[in-house]
Design goal:
This protein is mainly beta. Helix content is 8%, strand content 38%. The longest helix has 4 residues. The relative contact order is 0.23.
Length: 99
């Protein structure tokens, strides 16, 4: 479960790594999103919510260990995930306003 303190949030990555995620607009906006934005993972159809920015805990094929990435949580999942290029791999989903 997520733990929220000011502009930081603790959560767990799918890999099992514990993360301290920066949910501030200043951290998220360079990736083209804000904390709480609803998104679709392009090409997969998964829906989720943007959490924030934290360093990648381990090297992957496309991201270096320690490189800041945008983390999001797929609907129905306990842990957070990232995509290497969120501006091209995540699509914002408008949330209908309630009256």
């Amino acid at each position: 479960m997520s733990e929220h303190k000011t502009d930081k949030l603790k959560d767990k990555a799918i890999s099992g790594h514990e993360l301290e995620i920066d949910i501030s607009d200043a951290a998220c906006e360079p990736f083209g999103f804000k904390h709480g934005d609803h998104v679709e993972v392009i090409g997969f159809g998964f829906m989720g919510e943007v959490i924030g920015v934290a360093p990648c805990p381990a090297k992957t094929e496309v991201v270096a260990e320690g490189e800041n990435v945008l983390w999001f949580k797929v609907d129905g999942q306990e842990a957070v995930s990232f995509v290497p290029d969120p501006k091209n791999e995540l699509r914002p989903i408008p949330v209908p306003e309630t009256a």
